[in-house]
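Its record is retained below.
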Amino acid sequence: MAVTNWIAEKDIVDSVTDALQFISYFHPQDFVQYLSRAYSVETSPSARSAIGQILVNSRMAAMGKRPLCQDTGVVNVFARVGIEARIASKKPLQELIDEAARRAYLSDENPLRASVVADPLFARRNSGDNTPAMVNVELVAGDKLEFDVSAKGGGSENKTKFAVLEPSDSVSDWVVKTVEKLGAGWCPPGILGIGVGGSVEKTMLMAKQVLNEPLDMWDILRRGPSSKLEEVRVEIYERVNALGIGAQGLGGMTTVLDVKIRSFPTHAASLPVALIPNCAATRHVHFSLDGFGPAQFEPPDIHDWPQVIIDHTASSGRRVDLDHLTDDEIAGWKPGETLLLSGTLFTGRDAAHKRMLEALRAGQPLPVDLRNKAIYYVGPVDPVGDEVIGPAGPTTSTRMDRFLDELLPATGLKVMIGKAERGDSAIRAIAKNKAAYLIAVGGAAYLVSKAVRSAQPVAYQDLGMEAIYRMVVEDMPVMVAVDCRGTSIHTVGPALYRR
């Protein structure tokens, strides 16, 4: 009878720690290949530029070993424990994985952004170390421990949808209609994870689990579907891409790179369906432990990345001096136009906006003067070495929509920078106040951070990464998303590419 080796507690913690660091700066190899192909066939100049920036950012992150995205995600771990596995630890697996997450996110060499708030209902204070992790454990045959480790950002996680359909309903129709309404906050192009059947919680878990599977849509398209499930995957893939949403919602040929589906038997009266998208910062890795030491992770070949050159010279966009903004200049900006921003801007997200609005309503002065200024919706990663700031990509702007009606006229704020579309009320407020909304590319955080020349927290420091910073930038590349007349690129762009 074979003797099973003991799996050391240290090997579990070290392996998960290394996995979290590894996925923070390495895209999966297949994702790079699929994204490169999308770049090569894209006909929309705006979408092609966005995909190009994501690829350049991905290569920079891989070489510099710094996060792909400023939202370094909530830790998600699916663990399959072999029933014959022997684990040399008396601690719960949750405790071991939390320790690994703590070490990975507080690393001195590559600190990751802590995004978890410990109390979701009331204080919503940041846990400071991104714990606890979201851990799911399954007992399976065998004598090994298998892990799928991923880091899931809030922008794509927030677009999760669930429904219980009638058994005679079309899952494909529901998915396509749902994706059409999601907007661009999940940072396409990415992957759709779909769970069908089981129970409510089973469906959601399957949709999350299936996102960790290797991409194979090209193989299916080349040889043709070999099962009814593959036929449904291809149908959804083609119909979603035909919506014309495109990279970052700008309008284009590719919205999804693959569609993954997992199903399970369900009640005869039910058809539960869950949809979870993965964004352009797709991050996951699989490994197993057998008692012979910690997992080893092999970096992808840097030659897998295409040589994409992004032109950020004066000829590639209109130069804008943020320290001398005027209504006349803003009036000249057109949706889809590239701008290169230089000068001073402030940062601020949900929590900062809420405090500023509370101060205004109480008749109190704001800690910063926003008149004729720009605000960037960002929660950056801490810097290391000689960095001015860590990766600093945009967050989803719709979360700030509710504040604009009061904030814009009260402060004189003229420019907002974020990602994805704005809602109707926000667009009306932008037009009414002759302001403008610009977008930076979600998934290009490390690239964007290289335009930052200085960064200093100036207010609400207790909010951590959501504090207000004063930044000085030089040639920060952005695109006009909503002009001062209320025309949105997220409306006119996809309309051109819908097919």
Q: What stands out?
A: Residues 17 and 104 are 5 Å apart (CA to CA). The chain has a mean pLDDT of 95. The chain has three domains: 1-152+284-290+299-308, 154-280, 314-497. The longest strand covers residues 468-482.
